[in-house]
Amino acid sequence: MAIHALELGMPVKEIESPYKTRQEGSYSKLNTYQDGIRILFKIISLFICKKPCVFFGVIAFILFLISVLLVIPIVHMWLVTGLVPRIPTIVLCSSLVVVSAISLIIGILMEAIYQVRRTSNCLVYLGFE
Prior knowledge:
Structural class: mainly alpha
Number of helices: 4
Strand content: under 5%
Distance between the termini: 22 Å
Largest sheet: none
Oligomer: single chain
Helix content: over 70%
Number of strands: 0
Low-confidence stretches: none
Mean pLDDT: 87
Order of helices and strands: HHHH
Shape: elongated
């Protein structure tokens, strides 16, 4: 909720809540690892929703970098001998470049959609329907 409130520029106030010691015989219902994994996935989900261009841009960059690193020895071999010995690697590299481009386009489109939704949420909050 804090992220959404900050995004809309809403006023935020902290309210103190009383803490008491746990009653004897009771136990915590929290599971450290399971709850930590849930929180981690929620953070990743919020990051994808709030910064899709960055998330998918990083994925696109990594895939493109892997493709370039895989194709360098093949291009070198082709320049030296005129032969392309590893056709499957060339297919993999070209596929990685295509997936990289698709990832970048998805990030750009999701960023545009996010900006429109953010603007409409701000207008609703301000009462300018």
